[in-house]
Structure formats: structure tokens, C-alpha cells
Amino acid sequence: MEQLKEEDVRLTLDVFDSEESKSRIEQILDQQLPQETDAIMGPIKKECLVTLAEFGKENRMPIISPWYSSQSVAKENPYYIQINPFLTEHYHAITEHALEEFSKDQIFLVGRENTRDTDRFKYFQETAEIILDEKEALKTFTFDQDSLSAEFEIIKAKLLDDKATVFILPNYSSRDAQFIYDFIRRINVEKLDHEVYVYGMPVMASMDKLSYDYLVNMNVRIVMSRFVDVSGPLEKRFQSDFFEEYNCFPMDEAYEGYDNLLFLGRALKRYGTGFVRKLDQDGLEYLSTRFNIQPVMTSNNVEDQSIEYF
């Protein structure tokens, strides 16, 4: 808010505890929300967001979801804005990057022999088909997780001798952290002089077991919608101001909240309450990300399209 004030953006900010309760959200909307409210940001729980999205649609008020991403919260609602990209957007970004750097013959989609892992392969294959005009263009590599401990040289047979081998791990949940670690540890043992690259999801960035040596030896590449370069001048200023105020250093959530509110405040200043349809024109670099908000349409048919949400 202080930064926005420096930019001559004057806002009144009301903060409510949703208590992750739908009834509490309804109480806030009925009894506590100021009449002159221009936009609402938050909360995290899906059923609360559904209630807010319906309220926003009825009252033509922008509702911004800063954390939760889902295709089922809003329907034909041009007032609902989802900031975090879908899981599938991460998969598309990995595939595009891998195919820019490597040939399809070098790439393996990796998973355990269960549908939870293998069902995710289709999103990578769909992106690869768009790029290469070829169905099932990427190779797959599945195995029983126990084999990572029981079998010898389970990975070595997949390693290419004359060029780099690329493994893509679609696992995104902290529940899969042990599998991710076991797989990378086995590659580290078996690869010898082979060149290996591993692509993974944001969960890999927060895994304590994945030491610096593993990340370097495996040429690990992690797709993230947010990343803070703490050596930058703006980031250093933010750290200093944050420490002076709270006597501790900011965690990632602090940068995220700061960026989200700056983004919203600047949009309100520049475009007024009709800012929603202008969000793709922001173009600014924030501390942890850039914002590229686009409409999600109800249909691929140009003549029969309406906006589901942004």
C-alpha cells in the first residue's frame, strides 16, 4: 500500500478473515463489505471462491483468486480472475522448452506404473503433437517404484551414448517427493559420464533432500510461475523494508502478496473498475513474476464464444 501511495494510487484496503468458511464469506458479503468496494481478492478454499465468484457475477464486481486454480469455480463469468496458471500450463511450458533444446528422441516422460502418473503424460504429448505434428511423439519410461531400490542399473539402459538424455517428471505433489528423490539419486549413481537433464515441477525447488550437487549433476530445470532474484535492486529494497518492519526476512508468500496487490492497484488506477478486460496490457516486471491474464472462452467457435473467466 505504501508503494502504491508513492505511485499516487489511493486505495482503501479492507481485510477480512474468511476462516475458510462459506458461511463466514456470506456473512462478510451481507454485513461487512463496504458498498463502494471495487474488487475482492482471495480466499484460498474452493467453496468460498465459488460463493464469491457468484457474488461477483451478480454484482459485476471483479473477484481475484490469487492462489487457487481450477476450471470449475466460475462459469460464463467475465468478473472472475484466476492469477495462478493451471498445472497443465506448467506441463506445456516444459514440453515447449525441452523441444526447443533437444530432439524428441532424447526425451523420456517418466512415471511409476500407476494411472496417477501415466495419465499426466497426455498433456505433454498434446503439446508435442502441436509442435511436431506427430501423435505420441515423446517416449515414455515407467517402472515400479520399488525397483529403484531392488533392481540394478534400471535407468542405465535408457541413457544415450552420443547425446544428452532428458527425463521429464510430471509429479507436482509433496507426496511424491520421495519418488522424485529416489529417481534422481539413482540417475546420479548410474549415469557415470552420460549427460543427463531432468525437468520437474515447482515441488522440486522446495525439497531439502535435493542438494546443490544433485541439481547441478542432473542439470535440473524447474518450471515455476514465480521466482525471486534476491540479488536485484528492487528485491533488496523490499527485503530491507520488510526486515525493518517485521524483524524477519520475507518468505516467497510475501513477494507474491506484494506483487498481487501492486498488480491490482495499478490496474484500478490505470483503467478504473473496468480494468478486467485490460489486464493483458500490463507488461510490467514484478518482484516474482509477470502477469499475462487472458480470457478463457466457452467455445472454440468464434461465432459462439463467451468468456468463462480470465
Describe, in plain words, how this protein is organized in 3D.
With 310 residues, this protein is α/β, with parallel strands linked by helices. 38% of the residues lie in helices and 12% in strands. It has eleven helices and ten strands. It has helices at residues 2-6, 22-32, 46-59, 87-101, 115-118, 121-132, 147-150, 177-190, 212-217, 233-246, 252-271; strands at 40-41, 63-65, 80-82, 107-112, 139-143, 165-168, 196-200, 220-222, 296-297, 307-309. Strands 5-4-6-7-8 form a five-stranded parallel β-sheet. Strand 1 (40-41), helix 3 (46-59) and strand 2 form a beta-alpha-beta unit. Helix 2 (22-32) packs parallel to helix 3 (46-59) and helix 4 (87-101) packs across helix 6. The longest helix has 20 residues, at 252-271. The relative contact order is 0.12. The mean pLDDT is 92.
